[in-house]
Amino acid sequence: MNRNHWIITGVSVLVVVVVSLVIISQITNPNDVAEQPENQTTQEKQGDNGKNADGKTQFEAKHQSFQHMKYPGDVSPEFSADELTSSPSKNWITNGGNISNGRFSQLDQINTSNVSNLKAEWVTSMGSGYKFKYSGESTPIVYDGVMFNITGANDVQAINAKTGEIIWEFQPELADGLDTVCCGWTSRGLALGDGKVFVGLLDARLVALDQKTGKVEWETEVDEWEKGYNITSAPLYYDGKVYTGIAGGEYGIRGYVAAYDAKIGRQIWRTYTIPGPGEEGHDTWQQDNNSWLTGGAPVWQTPAIDPELGQIYFSTGNASPDLDGSNRKGDNLFANSIVALDADSGERKWHFQEVHHDIWDLDAANPVVLFDAEVDGEMRKGIAQAGKTGWVYILDRTSGKPLIGIEEKEVPQSEKQNTSPTQPFPKGDNFVPQQVTEEDAKRDLPEEFDGKIGRLFTPFWDEPMTVKPSPQGGGNWPPSAYNPNTEYLYVLGNDNYFSYAHYADDEENSFDEGKEYLGSVWQPVEESPSRSTVTAIDIKTNKIVWQKNWDSIAYSGVLTTKGNLVFVGHNDGRIIAYDATTGDHLWEFKTDAGANAPPITYEIDGKQYISIFSAGNSLAGTQHGDKIYTFSLEGKYDSLEDIPEEDINTSPLAEKREEHEEHEDQDSDKTQDEGNAALDQGRTIYENNCLSCHGDQGAGGHNGPSIKKSDIVKNREKLIEQIKNGGGGMPPFKGTLSEDQINVLSDYIMEKLATKE
Predict the structure, then answer these.
(1) Closest C-alpha to 705, from 679, 726, 730
(2) In which residue ranges is the amino acid composition biased (Polar residues) (predicted)?
(3) Is 361 a catalytic residue?
(4) Are 523 and 387 within one domain?
(5) How many CB atoms lie within 10 A of CB 308?
(6) Does 220 lie in the same domain as 112?
(7) 566-604, pLDDT tens digit by residue?
(8) Which one of 361, 363, 592, 626 is the catalytic residue?
């Protein structure tokens, strides 16, 4: 079947797929990790020509910290296990609220009876991360009246959580030429402890900042970004250690989780998610090649910890290459799995694989959630993870065995893809559809669509196959929340149409270090709808209690409270409150950008606040911004229109950042008459605005179609019109890019990305 069977819209950036790809692989003995070099301060030079003796890229001290006012609170202690496991109330000290990742607060001043009276208390403009390539996905943290947040540009701010005034700012110097960020420039948050703020940078460095000043205390190079290693998740502080996972599965990395000494940044242990020769699980990889070395399985989210059991828990991404299983025969452990390690040593305790031999990019991107509940008359220690498959996987966290029940069932087979004969099917309800029916195709797909349709686990090869859920999920990266009072898990799920196919001659099928390595092609179906669900699931039965249906993807995260409330953000900029028991819609406030990050709550001087970072998202295609909105029952502003411009707190560095951005724009506007300069400028513009959706070579992006074969890239006039005005889910770039930038971009696409006849 020829490629015209792909129903696509030119360069559409169909904003439906945020494939928080989480590809993990194997686990090695932590004692085998080589001793790490001594950390250098940010003032020290690190070798001639910016290189180590082993050729690794080094970084000079170009980070900048700016103190705008005196720090008003106390610094964080070396938090105890009790402090880190308690449900948050006054403070919000970890990415997930506590180290159980439940995102539940004990505060109930704001509740179902009065939430309709919420008004905006303060709004602060970060002055950072508002360009299209950036995404605002961060969960702020709060301690003793001070909030800390990170933007998509990796800038960090300390903010007075009562007034919104910025106390200090940290601007990192990211690596020049950073081009291995698969899914948009973003960070999902920070960690706090022992007087330090811990930051994972996109170029795979871990940095500790002084909590009062934002100055660098230490810095560690976790890995080499040139090979595709990134950090997008929030680190986790516990017991004097800082834990971080590594992203980059789309680049054929070998995933892992590592622990670092919180005082000096030295690595304590590293555990790979793909086992090496002689280790348990290695036999689940093809034995006549080295596919395990590029097997993926990254970790996209912040782990959870049970101090009583001494275990750290996380879920892993799919195997690499994402969509081609022909050369990695076997289940491919420990990709697509929930994994438990010893928190002190990194020794593996147990695992549960959600998808065997994944070829659909159904990685486990949603953070794991720990809970204690009575199941069948017995108190149990549970762990839950909302999968891209559309199911919640509920296990006993002491053993990794199913708590509710999960059956292995036979599934359709493809000899060429080496598919697994069975897959795990959890008992309970799926929270999104798991099949494309004939009725769906007639209702939702264009008349000219003539591709094949299937269900979850339907394999594909050289004929396009459209299935559900898509690579976007099901449950993607936006965190779930658990309320111990209702005993419901609140999950965001996506429902849209994606097609897969494999072509043996495609560039995506070959591994080239530092380049995307997907192994096949995928893309959204043109003019098909994107939908989503907000679902309350009974943790004791895995059954749906209530569900809300949206007409766009759900791409933010969940907060739940003792006030019997659930808060979520919406693509259109709204923050919404539901009744946690019934799902009744109780309140909303529309911000000026996509509300694509999880809300939080905290208390100062007896007053409860609700906050959300509303900055938009590249892969969701939402309106970009740079503001934190904070609400209370004593707030003054009913709507965005009521807030005077002069009442919005602004970064003292905003003007300087604007000048810098304008300077960069002017540089990229200088189109030269001949040579490669103009094409180099076009490549930069493409990387900043198009790469995350369309891939670094015009194919293999994470929510846009391949543009290599598209007819539109053969017609310069139509291409420019598409870039300017958008359409088919692609946002318009008129007003974002100048005329000269659009011209240079179109030249680059036609010259370098379009397939020549």
Answers:
(1) 730
(2) 33-44
(3) yes
(4) yes
(5) 10
(6) yes
(7) 999 999 999 999 999 999 999 999 999 999 999 999 999
(8) 361
